[in-house]
Specification:
This protein has three domains: about 90 residues, Fumarase/aspartase (N-terminal domain) (Fumarase C, Chain B, domain 1, Orthogonal Bundle), CATH 1.10.275.10; about 250 residues, Fumarase C, Chain A, domain 2; about 100 residues, Fumarase/aspartase (C-terminal domain) (Ribonucleotide Reductase Protein R1, domain 1), CATH 1.10.40. It is built from 18 helices and four strands. The strands form two sheets. The chain has a two-stranded antiparallel sheet with strand order 1-2. Strands 3-4 form a two-stranded antiparallel sheet. Strand 1 and strand 2 form a beta hairpin. The chain is elongated and about 100 Å long. Bound molecules: arginine. Arginine binds next to helix 6.
């Protein structure tokens, strides 16, 4: 059979069966190149690997694969230089690249789509894109952990009030409080690594949905692109978007952590708390109130968590009604996951330097440290250690706190007689449990704010994040 001449070819890659041209309004409505052009690099990497595999399997000659690889590299350079023209008529980035290749190579370019569909192609590109994003986000989180760790190391020794219900609870080392964020971001990193494993599976070769009757070698592409597994079911392979949902969720939970942190530091840096001094380069002013130095960066971090959470919802709802396998709805996955990735990346870009530039106002922290009876639990545990049943010790100290509150003093300011009146077993040695610093020093349990244990944690984190 002879090939149709140029004149007979449809302007669409899929146009053969059509008798009518695509309505321009449909082209504008259904195009994705305006956003999926971000997949260009991954699309080219995957296409080169695909062409090499086709050559290894005898479906292309080595010379043809070489020409395709070279042509694709030229197109990559053209796209990077902003010289490739994007048009809604060519739908998406995949068809743009293939068409640019065919313009260059003619029939050799028209062979690239052998044993491939845009369905497995876009799935492959997305996995490569997400894999790269995961690696950048993981690194960004590590930088942020390092900033928190450095802050914790700088503040070793500073005792601050710890809060529950946003009410003064127990004294803690500031470094202990700061290392709590390292723990959360460590879990986020581990979730990213976990998500990466399921992302790093090759769909290419699933083709449209049933696989191919041509003798392809999927393991060849798997190795070339650094995948660690090949999708074992073509129906699932071409349409699985679990990895996108997972990544969006991991990002959303990370953003929730960042939002909580932002909220805490907004509070701690208010005039009312005055614990933290934010770097002025990371604050902005008011156009009307000359005195204002606002924590806008932290507020935006808190605010941007909303869209990351929304994207998870959008993706799950996108998928919930889809029959197998590929459905065009899936094109809608990209903007959501791109936005989540971009949002977290932008946040990480400012979060680490903000942490690096922040310091505690020691005088302000210490000025009110003995307010709020932060040592009440410490005293209660001292009584328990002396044999008093916990419920009795709790009530006894409760009475003592009420007495101190009425007098407007700290527990340490009560006299031995006042303690004895409440509990006959009192001796002056119990004063060792009083005061915020002593309460911290008496801690012994693993994971507590005990200074020696926190110092050990700092050393462990330093090794871990080195
Ligand atoms: N632009 C499409 C997407 O993002 C590519 C796959 C199109 N496949 C198809 N059979 N129309 O999902």
């Amino acid at each position: 059979m002879s090939h149709p001449s140029e004149g007979q070819k449809s302007s669409k890659a899929w146009g053969g069966v059509f008798r009518e041209p695509t309505d321009k309004r449909v082209e504008a409505f259904s195009e994705s190149v305006s956003f999926d052009r971000r997949l260009a690099d991954d699309d080219i990497d995957a296409s080169i690997a695909h062409a090499r595999m086709l050559a290894a399997c005898g479906l292309l000659t080595v010379a043809e694969a070489d020409a395709i690889a070279q042509g694709l590299e030229e197109i990559r350079a053209e796209i990077r230089a902003g010289r490739l023209e994007f048009t809604a008529a060519k739908e998406d980035i995949h068809l743009h690249i293939e068409s640019a290749l065919t313009t260059r190579l003619g029939d050799v370019g028209r062979k690239l789509h052998t044993a491939r569909s845009r369905n497995d192609q876009v799935a492959t590109d997305l996995r490569l894109f997400c894999r790269r994003a995961i690696d950048r986000l993981e690194q960004g989180l590590k930088e942020l952990q390092r900033a928190f760790l450095a802050f914790a190391a700088r503040e070793e020794g500073l005792v601050m009030p710890g809060y529950t219900h946003l009410r003064r609870a127990q004294p803690v080392l500031a470094s202990h409080q700061l290392l709590a964020w390292c723990e959360k971001f460590e879990r986020d990193r581990s979730r990213l690594a976990d998500c990466r494993r399921r992302t790093n599976v090759l769909p290419l070769g699933s083709c449209a949905m049933a696989g191919s009757s041509l003798p392809i070698d999927r393991a060849h592409v798997e190795a070339a692109l650094g995948f660690e597994g090949v999708a074992a079911n073509s129906v699932d392979g071409a349409s699985d978007r679990d990895f996108i949902c997972e990544l969006a969720f991991v990002i959303s939970l990370t953003m929730v952590h960042l939002s909580q942190w932002a909220e805490e530091w907004i509070l701690y840096s208010t005039q009312e708390f005055g614990f933290l001094k934010l770097p002025e380069g990371f604050c902005t002013g008011s156009s009307i109130m000359p005195q204002k130095i606002n924590p806008d960066v932290l507020e935006l971090i808190r605010g941007k968590s909303a869209r990351a959470i929304g994207n998870v919802q959008a993706l799950l709802v996108l998928l919930k009604g889809l029959p197998t396998a590929y459905n065009r709805d899936l094109q809608e996955d990209k903007e959501a996951i791109f936005d989540s990735i971009d949002t977290l990346e932008a946040v990480l870009g400012v979060a680490a330097p903000l942490v690096a530039g922040t310091s505690f106002d020691h005088a302000r922290v210490m000025a009110t440290l003995e307010r709020g009876h932060l040592d009440a639990t410490s005293l209660m545990e001292a009584l328990i250690a002396a044999g008093v049943p916990q419920r009795t010790a709790h009530e006894t100290v409760g009475h003592l706190v009420r007495h101190a509150m009425t007098k407007g003093v700290a527990l340490a300011e009560l006299s031995d007689e006042e303690f004895q009146r409440e509990w006959a077993g009192w001796t002056a040695s119990f004063r060792g449990a009083l005061g915020a610093s002593r309460a911290v020093e008496r801690m012994v349990s693993f994971g507590s704010t005990a200074p020696a244990l926190v110092a050990e944690q700092i050393a462990i984190w330093k090794r871990h994040l080195a």
